[in-house]
Amino acid sequence: MSSENHSLFGAFREETDGIVFGVGALLTIVAIGAIAIRPDTTAEMLTTANTFLWKELGWLYLWSMFLAVAFCLWLLVGPWGKIKLGNPDDDPEFTFFQFFAMLFSAGLSTGLVFYGPAEALFHYSSGPPLLSAGAESAGIIPGAVQYTMLHWGISPWAAYLTVGVTIAYYVHRHDAPIKPSTIFAPFIGVSNLDENWVKFLDIGMVVVSVGGVAVSLGFVVTQFMTGLSYNWGIEFGNLGTILITVGLTVGFTISAALGVKKGIRRISSFNMYLFAGLLVVAFIFGPTAFLLNLGGEAFGGYVTQFIEMSLYTNVSNGTEWVGAWTIFYWAWWFSFAPMIGIFIARICRGHTIRQIVFAGLVGTSAASFPWFVVMGGSSLWAQNTSRVDILGVVSQYGIEVAGFPLFEQLMPFGKLFSALYLLLVLTFLITTVDSTTLSLAMFTTGGDSNPPTANRVAWGVLVGFLTSLLIIMGGLAALKDLVVLVGLPIAIVVGFCIVGLTMEFEQRYPVLLTERYGVDDENEDPESISLVSYLSTRQAESSSD
């Protein structure tokens, strides 16, 4: 063995938290392996569990996400937004555009290319119960796009940002480790984050996170293979599926191994240019006037009905539709929140909370809403006017193929743009998964912001292997059901983040109360005050009185 390899694996052994990495990886393999081996049995069990969650605890998912949105809007416009994550003289490690490109590429991009042309079509064909228009009618088109905006707008980013800002604040202001358990710093103090019992949260986050990544990777791998099959007639058996998944795994593992500056940042910037180029092409050569009218009407409905859609459960007629769509999405975003939160903390040093929240809420919505209007709206227009039977193609090939006939049959040089769309699927996949494997590596090294390459490679290989196993064995649908289940504890964790960060900020930069506790000068940066120590101090003061 060469000295270079010895050094590589030596760093892996020395810097990796053996308990979190070993137990987390083992539990992940057991959970996903059980789904892959007996997909039908586990799918039936998980469907039963999900039905219970939809009916009995759906309100918890909806309210947790809604409160996260309200909290992030307060951070955006309130005085706490001026807090800088880092020392007062710290310059941002990345420019705002670089930060935004990485944030956007990591957070939603694989879903954008997968669901962009397709989700509004599903709402068009099924008719969400909140909408008054009938299924497959012209009147339901604005509502179909409006619901897509709900599922991909500010709500998922509120979950990411609530976790991310909480971790980033303690990492960059109080030198806490960059790991999920840091969210408990307001309650137990930074000094107690190295206790062994705290590792159970990090282990749980590993299992939840790998499940969420495997779902996303599985979606996009199937989209990539179906795109090759639809466009060029290439068919894949089990061996081909493994080879494609391994090839993609090598791509995002190399990017993750190169690190943030050399790998993720460069591919993220490329993604944004390709994404914008395809969006402009689809807008110009599509039904432009129709899209402009549709976008305005759908966005207006999104704004005016946001609260109603966010908390709607269809309690009088059953929760099946809301459970299958809104609650599933919220659980999916919750399962990603620890990873994206860690990634946000890694790249945000030197920026203010307001800048981070602005990029997450306003910036990403400004980029994703036009995509859903143009791609989803064009699909709806083509379907409703019978120019292209996209639903027929979807019924034959699956949801993952929806974007290809749109480019191929409605655009000039359709084959070229269809191939570029496939390239976008690939590059967005790489940036999404490499950022999450980087987060997993930080999880399992005790919060090291630059984890060893071997750790990143190990997680990349494991995620790729488990995903290919699920695709081959037919367990991807069962894993989607598992995501709803594992999203429940993260919904509760988001609530802890809101409460803990509010307490911390109110003690140091009071807005809601007029009395200050523990800090005389808001420019000082003292050690973190935990809830326990704060309550103990207040009790002692009351006793002395």
Written account of the structure:
There is one protein chain. This protein is mostly helical and 545 residues long. The chain contains 21 helices and no strands. It has helices at 3-15, 18-37, 39-77, 96-107, 109-115, 119-126, 141-152, 154-174, 185-188, 199-232, 238-285, 288-304, 306-311, 320-347, 353-384, 390-397, 403-410, 414-443, 453-473, 476-508, 531-544. Helix 2 (18-37) packs parallel to helix 19 and helix 7 (141-152) packs antiparallel against helix 15. The longest helix has 48 residues, at 238-285. The termini are far apart. The model is unreliable at 1-6 and 517-535 (pLDDT under 50).
Core attributes:
545 residues; mainly alpha; globular
Structure in a nutshell:
With 545 residues, this protein is mainly alpha-helical.
